[in-house]
């Protein structure tokens, strides 16, 4: 029998307790470096408090747990942040390669009179034609520097076949998928 020596893991330091004098990366270099992480693009929708829908384009969406199904988004303070804080719910639509216009629409770059088509959910509409749609109930909101992580339980989801819209090096991309 062989005994293995395992060194104890260093204690984690909570984000809000990191010394302010800690060395941090140059903001410009960090932005250009993190842009090289290819991500999918999603639109987060939420009730606007007036019977309508408000949305925002994000690339900070991730699954956290399968049991129970849990996801997370990261948002800066603003209207979407406030509406999610007030309603306690949000929808996520993972965009397909044909939905670059949807991404631009929800960043405020609207062209003409076009408006997106929604799929009605239990509480939150999501975008028709998206690869995946999630309806989420917030279970925790964690402030981290200038963002809040909205961790949510998925109460309903569905998906379609297709190819994703991606973001890499600050540009849209459509991956070439093998048949």
Automatic annotation (TrEMBL):
Matching Gene3D superfamilies: Electron Transport, Fmn-binding Protein, Chain A
Pfam families: Flavin_Reduct
Keyword Oxidoreductase: yes
The UniProt record lists the keyword Oxidoreductase: yes
Molecular function in Gene Ontology: FMN binding; riboflavin reductase (NADPH) activity
Domain Flavin reductase like: 34-174
Superkingdom of source: Bacteria
Annotated protein name in UniProt: Flavin oxidoreductase
Species the sequence originates in: Mycolicibacterium hippocampi
């Amino acid at each position: 029998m062989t005994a293995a020596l395992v060194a104890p893991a260093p204690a984690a330091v909570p984000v809000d307790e990191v010394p302010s004098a800690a060395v941090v990366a140059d903001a410009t270099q960090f932005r250009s470096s993190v842009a090289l992480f290819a991500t999918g693009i999603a639109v987060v929708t939420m009730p606007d408090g007036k019977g309508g829908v408000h949305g925002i384009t994000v690339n900070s969406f991730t699954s956290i747990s399968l049991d129970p199904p849990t996801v997370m988004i990261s948002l800066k303070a603003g209207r979407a942040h406030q509406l999610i804080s007030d309603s306690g719910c949000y929808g996520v639509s993972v965009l397909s390669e044909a939905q670059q216009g949807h991404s631009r629409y929800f960043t405020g770059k609207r062209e003409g009179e076009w408006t997106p088509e929604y799929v009605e959910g239990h509480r939150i509409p999501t975008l028709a034609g998206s690869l995946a749609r999630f309806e989420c109930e917030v279970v925790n909101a964690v402030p981290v520097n200038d963002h809040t992580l909205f961790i949510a339980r998925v109460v309903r989801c569905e998906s379609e076949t297709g190819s994703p819209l991606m973001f890499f090096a600050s540009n849209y991309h459509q991956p070439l998928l093998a048949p």
